[in-house]
Amino acid sequence: MDQHTGPLRVIRSYDPALDLDKVRDIAEYASTRDPALIPNLLTTGARPTWFHVLKATRKGCRYIRSGTDAGDCYERAFAVCVQRVEGAGGDTFTHPEPTGARAAPDAWLENFDEMDIQEVGSVALNHSFLARDLPRFFPRPDTSESALIALLYHRAGQTTASGPDSPDSSSEPADPLPDTPQP
User: Fold this and answer.
1) 3-class SS at 158?
2) 135-161 tens-digit pLDDT
3) Percent of the chain that is helix, strand, coil (3-state, to 5)
């Protein structure tokens, strides 16, 4: 199917199922949303949360553009374009009117974290507005960058806490990094 008109099946760039040792590959996936990259990014046996994103109709695009700022436009794009979400825990959420033309009600959006709405909404916006003759590219909103940095920071703390990184095993292990507060 044409990359510009067909539905996308995406995961978040900070999904817990991702293998953070592959951060460069994760960054490539986040900017291209190339589904061929996903199998190599997952931790063995892990299940990510999948978001099924349609391209907005003309009516949906007008609604998305009427947002007051980038964050509002991302939320509107999420509400219009995300048609189904398959959670890692088995939960599935289906858009009440899956057409790519109408926004889901706020009650449906309450099922998702703001960071997820912003990242996947930015993917939906770019998928809907990208010119057909351009290669697919998806810049990440600041909230996604912050989430990935927080995960890496937390992971560094876990690695440091599990043992010394230096070959000198006689030294005291470093104190673990503090947990990053969650929004």
Assistant:
1) helix
2) 676 766 665 556 556 656 566 666 555
3) 45, 10, 45
